[in-house]
Amino acid sequence: MDFFNRLASDLGNSRCEKLQSPSYLNLALSILLVLGILVSYLPQHYRIIARGTSEGISPFFILLGTTSSTCAFANILVLPASRADVACCKVVSTFECAAGLLGIAQLGVQWFSFSVILFLFLVFFPRGPILPPNDAEKPYTWRTAVTVAVLCLLHGLIVIIVSVALIIARPHHLGTWANMLGITATILAAIQYFPQIWMTWHLKHVGSLSIPMMLIQTPGSFVWAGSLAARLGPTGWSTWGMFVVTGCLQGTLLAMGIVFEVQARRARENSEGEGTNARCIAGCIPGIVETDDEGGPVVEDGLTENAPLLNGSRKSSPPSYSD
């Protein structure tokens, strides 16, 4: 026990000395990363709210992404170096403390931003019985969305309980627990894009998935990986390799989404060039509805088969005809 106490004391002293001489270049880059992570997720939040539906987003993408972010955030919180940085805030200045905790802030912002996506996914989940409607083998219902939210909540509670218990009763096991969390986060992050790629391929449109978010995050993944590779070298492949894999998978999803968006825009322009006659027929004759650029039905009051539960109380008025 004395060995572990002495080791923790030496680590704390070295971390405090490091915090007292921060690199302003690293500080600036860390601040930019925090802001960049936050800004990169805002288009996705706006996309779901603006469309009023989370249609097109895979529940498994949400499940894997949220649990991965939770593991990554918990990993950096329980690391001995991170706990030493937090303890050093008692003896260093406020500026030095804030600069030293920016690494924790980065993963904290990522976890919070993805948790907001989970919340919006649940609130704006389509009220239709199946999502997507053309994939009968995968009945993504409201129960599926609730199950994803419950699993994410239970996973977060388990991680918190185990982490607190180890901090109180078995602090010398925290290093092993942190490694387990890091490996789990890496595996989940590496596979989280596969179900979304599969869904987008079958839908042939991105739905509520944000292309601007992927435009920011895809190159950002490679920049982050390059930064870590330059710092850790080839031996740190398990750390920066995750960002290379996720960058490639997200880039694949981005390319697919851009192709489908371009095809949809061309189809819409061609349909507009045919005149307003067909549009009037689609909007005026009962039983025939106009479709948007993503293949979904469009009606005047905005209530469709894929409308979220928030719009479930709205009723469409019957059409009236005049002589």
From TrEMBL:
The chain crosses the membrane at residues 24-44, 56-78, 98-125, 146-168, 174-194, 237-260. It comes from the Eukaryota. Residues 313-323 have a biased composition (Polar residues). It is found in: Membrane. InterPro entries: LAAT-1, PQ-loop_rpt. It is a multi-pass membrane protein. Keywords: Membrane, Transmembrane, Transmembrane helix. Pfam families: PQ-loop. One of its GO terms (cellular component) is membrane. Gene3D superfamilies: 1.20.1280.290. PANTHER family: PQ-LOOP REPEAT-CONTAINING PROTEIN, SEVEN TRANSMEMBRANE PROTEIN 1-RELATED. This is Related to PQ loop repeat protein. It comes from Phialocephala subalpina.
